[in-house]
Automatic annotation (TrEMBL):
Gene3D superfamilies: Anthranilate synthase
Major enzyme class: isomerase
Domain of life: Bacteria
EC number of this enzyme: 5.4.4.2
One biological process term in Gene Ontology: menaquinone biosynthetic process
Catalytic reaction(s) noted: chorismate = isochorismate
Protein name as it appears in the record: Isochorismate synthase MenF
Species of the source: Vreelandella sedimenti
Length: 441
């Protein structure tokens, strides 16, 4: 922020709040100037720190600090949403995510489910930027709430340019090794196994150990620049670790009772020129193995949505082009029943068949039995939830960073016809963008 004016403006609004206004949820906002939201986030001392930008063109960019309330279960989050909706007035946005497999041990400081109501929101939109202070009065003393809000405003500092990314010297270790991977693929593609489980999404953790890991916000900022048609997210619950990513896949977007989701599965690389690129795309759409992989995904999504919706429609298969990859995608539109909440959707949709497999339970059983690394929030969920609308991404194409190590994750859907060495190469292609940013490509 170029001046202290926005902070002073919020303090003034806080000072002049009438007692009758101090109930439920309230958002105080003021225009401000900011060049780089991640440069602003990176220098703040308040935690948690979150960043979110949805995939839509012209999406609002959000940086968040602090937590007024945090919820470690969907039931608690839904109860809070419902209580505020019933009280009327302004409605907040909650941000957070969920692990791939909430029943399994995960990453140390990342609960299986964690959504929070941020204290500070800095948003950049086409018309400029807005700094907001969130307040919550219902179940806390208004004096304490205002004192906490003041303390948070006083802690804010001006943005700084992000540090430059230096190429890293690192030790690389893949879990599983290529040999173990080949054995797993052999087991999944065995006709006896395919008979009951036609698709399992196997994943790999690539550990890069280095003397000094990069600033996560500098890394995300560079990554974002080359990942146009993707979601962009980052979360630091503590100063010592961060989870960032640029996922291409939407879990769902809800506007009132209208829902959009997608089947994104089936992968090929980009071509050297437009002609080769088109040829690869046409080959992908015609390819039996990849078409089967996509079909496994959309059939399961349709099955899950059916009891929740009054109508469901599926679009045509088409190709989406990312920086290094092309995927098959089908959009799915649904009209939800009145009683369906985000809790119902998040209890039934993830893990999607694009990151777990089909049928879900037997695919998960294989993953739990074989994968020794912890997926944590990789291939889980991250995004925004509010009473009126929600937008959530599937957390693929991501990195988990602590002070000693960067962990990169990639997965591949194994179906009839999958070849172990081809799928291993696909894993490398999926982490190629971030590897090149780290000076390792």
């Amino acid at each position: 922020m170029h001046s202290t004016h926005p902070i002073e403006a919020l303090k003034y609004q806080l000072d002049t709040l009438s007692d009758s206004a101090k109930k439920g949820f309230m958002r105080l906002s003021t225009p401000c100037q900011v060049d780089n939201l991640m440069g602003w986030l990176s220098v703040q001392s308040v935690y948690p720190r979150l960043y979110w930008k949805a995939r839509d063109t012209n999406a609002v960019e959000c940086a968040m600090l602090g937590a007024i309330k945090a919820f470690d279960s969907l039931a608690a989050l839904q109860a809070d949403l419902a209580a505020l909706a019933e009280a009327g007035g302004q409605q907040p946005n909650y941000f957070g995510g969920m692990a791939f497999d909430p029943g399994m041990p995960g990453w140390e400081h990342f609960p299986a489910c964690h959504f929070l109501l941020p204290r500070i929101e800095l948003k950049r939109h086409q018309g400029g930027a807005t700094l907001s202070l969130n307040l919550r009065f219902d179940d806390r003393s208004s004096c304490a709430e205002i004192a906490q809000a003041y303390a948070c405003l006083d802690a804010l500092v001006a943005e700084q340019p992000l540090p430059r990314l230096q190429p890293l010297v690192y030790q690389r270790e893949d879990r599983p090794s290529q040999q173990e991977w080949a054995a797993w693929v052999g087991q999944v593609t065995n006709p006896d196994h395919l008979g009951h489980t036609p698709k399992v999404v196997l994943s790999r953790e690539t550990r890069l150990t280095t003397s000094e890991t990069p600033n996560p916000w500098a890394l995300l900022s560079r990554w974002q620049a080359g990942a146009a048609d993707c979601f962009h997210f980052g979360i630091q619950l503590t100063p010592h670790e961060a989870f960032i990513g640029c996922p291409p896949e939407q879990l769902y977007k809800r506007d009132g009772r209208r829902l959009i989701t997608e089947a994104l599965a089936g992968t090929t690389r980009r071509g050297r020129d437009a002609g080769q690129d088109q040829a690869f795309a046409a080959e992908l759409l015609a390819d039996k193995k990849n078409t089967l992989e996509n079909q496994c995904v959309y059939q399961q999504i349709l099955t899950q949505l059916e009891p929740l919706s009054s109508q469901v429609q599926m679009g045509e298969a088409h190709i989406i082009k990312l920086r290094s990859l092309q995927h098959i995608r089908r959009l799915i539109h649904a009209e939800l029943h009145h009683s369906v909440t985000d809790q119902s959707l998040l209890s039934s949709l993830p893990p999607t068949p694009a990151v777990g497999g089909v049928p879900r339970e037997s695919a998960l059983a294989f993953i739990r039995q074989h994968e020794r690394h912890q997926r944590g929030w990789y291939s889980g969920v991250f995004g925004r939830i509010s009473h009126a609308s929600s937008d959530l991404a599937v957390t693929i194409r991501c990195a988990y960073i602590d002070s000693e190590m960067i962990r990169l994750y990639a997965g591949a859907g194994i179906v009839a016809g999958s070849q172990a060495d081809e799928e291993w190469r696909e894993l490398d292609t999926k982490i190629a963008d971030i590897m090149s940013l780290l000076g390792m490509g």
